[in-house]
Write a structure and sequence with these properties.
Number of strands: 18
Helix content: 25-40%
Structural class: alpha/beta
Length: 476
């Protein structure tokens, strides 16, 4: 079976968040199941040079001339779209000033148009049996496929985060080569604007999201971000398939970014010492080292963590933070580090090797998200024997067994859950973590159980393969 994945970022080539990790890991997880996935991705600066076995195709599109480069890189089968729309300094979505590119509707309209075009017309005889579109940036793929006619392959769209909907003014319709008839609430119109994500949800044959709990949450107003009504209408086509992580990349026994590799939690000590040295911090004797690896946004609940920080410090614990995002949160954590030298260390920015070291060196990782479609950092924490302390929402609720009294007695606990958007309960979860950490036997049992928890793609890859076969019955 041949599948085309259309996505705006893909690890390890280009990454701003978990979407890239999913897009990069899924093809390899599907291969043993007889599913070959090609990934269509914008040719951001520097990507074309990484391709091997390149075959080029020049296409005329409503967005201008485009060159499609087929090739391989990092074990992935790729189709890179070369266009002036992607040939600029900055990130995939924002410029050097952190502001969204003003022509993002064109940049990702083109990506979607190409996804539908490759699916419909193929490339040198290759044509996919079905299409997998990811998030709003590929949201118009199902719409363009619908316009191409009933002979086009069918599409599934995955919601990685419904809060990002690809909203643009009504005047974008013409620039996107969409007929005026599409500007209705049944199609792409959403509160008088064009919504890429709504278009995908309206026109894809199937909808998935990245955890079963998030799939249920999306049907409710607090989590649906205005699209809950449409999602309730399409509830029979919606499925929550839990994300996994690439256990080859994230393996503490072989991870090259670590000071010392390990396969048991008690062997983490050299990495813990390296984190403390790098961040200039040290917990009190017997107290845990917490970490944060996150975008600094209110969705991630990091403002709540700043409020709960006194509870952590009162327990003698230390905190190492790496991330970037909202400037007020960046300032807040830098101020906390200045106010509590030796106990709070902060690095603003994103450093992939450092994220590996933090996961290996910390005792626990804090994930106080207000909502979390799936989350990958808690899965990495489990894999590395770093207890997640997380909000009971979305994929966090689906992947962490809370260390309540019954779970601790049964030896089933893998982390600590708290009520989302609740500073008091977050502080209580931090204190519970510190309490269990003081009991060496209980902590060892919890972290060993965490490391044994399955976090790979095996089960979820089978679910995606079954979904693709439903979309294209009879495909080889």
């Amino acid at each position: 079976m041949q599948i085309l994945s259309v996505v705006s970022e893909c690890a390890p080539l280009v990454k701003t968040g978990g979407l890239a990790d999913v897009a990069g890991a899924l093809p390899g997880a599907l291969a043993p199941l007889g599913v070959r996935m090609r990934t269509l991705l914008p040719a951001y600066p520097g990507l074309a040079e990484r391709l091997a076995n390149v075959r080029a195709h020049d296409w005329a599109t409503p967005f201008g001339e485009v060159r499609l480069l087929e090739g391989e890189a990092e074990g992935l089968d790729l189709i890179l779209a070369q266009s002036p729309l992607y040939a600029r300094a900055g990130g995939p979505y924002t410029g050097p000033d952190r502001r969204d590119w003003p022509d993002n509707h064109l940049r990702f309209g083109l990506l979607s148009w190409l996804g539908a075009g490759v699916a419909t017309w193929g490339l040198e005889g290759w044509r996919p049996d079905a299409v997998h579109a990811h998030d709003w940036q590929a949201g118009l793929v199902p719409t363009y496929l619908r316009l191409a006619g009933p002979e086009s392959p069918r599409a599934v769209i995955t919601i990685h985060n419904v809060a990002f909907q690809g909203m643009f003014g009504a005047e974008a319709l013409g620039a996107l080569a969409l007929p005026q008839a599409m500007f209705t609430h049944e199609h792409v119109e959403f509160h008088g604007r064009v919504s890429f994500l709504k278009a995908g949800l309206a026109h894809a044959e199937r909808i998935t999201t990245v955890s079963p709990t998030y799939a249920r949450e999306l049907l409710t107003p607090p989590f649906g971000w205005g699209l809950d009504g449409l999602l309730r209408h399409r509830a029979s086509d919606l499925e929550g398939i839990l994300n996994g992580i690439d256990t080859e990349v994230w393996d503490p026994a072989r991870d090259r970014e670590l000071v010392a590799n390990y396969d048991r939690p008690r062997l983490k000590a050299p990495n813990r010492a390296a984190v403390c040295a790098r961040f200039g911090i040290e917990p009190a004797p017997g107290a845990p080292l917490f970490c944060v690896v996150s975008r600094m946004t209110r969705q991630k609940g990091l403002d709540l963590l700043l409020e709960a920080l006194p509870a952590l410090l009162e327990e003698g614990a230390a905190l190492a933070v790496i991330g970037s995002g909202d400037e007020d949160l960046e300032r807040g954590f830098l101020a906390a580090a200045a106010d509590h030298p030796g106990r709070v260390g902060v690095e603003i920015g994103y450093d992939e090797p450092a994220s590996h070291l933090l996961q290996a060196g910390a005792d626990a990782i804090l994930i106080p998200s207000r909502f979390e479609p799936c989350g990958l950092t808690q899965l990495i924490g489990l894999r590395y024997g770093t207890a997640p302390v997380a909000a009971r929402t979305g994929g966090l609720a689906d992947t962490i067994v809370d260390a309540n009294a019954a779970a601790l007695r049964a030896g089933a606990a893998t982390g600590f859950l708290h009520a989302p958007d609740d500073v008091a309960d977050l502080a209580h979860a931090i204190r519970r973590t510190c309490l269990v950490h003081r009991d060496a036997k209980a902590w060892s049992k919890l972290t060993r159980k965490a490391m044994a928890h399955p976090v790979g793609w095996e089960v979820s890859a089978r679910a995606y393969a079954a979904l693709y076969r439903r979309l294209a019955p009879g495909a080889a």
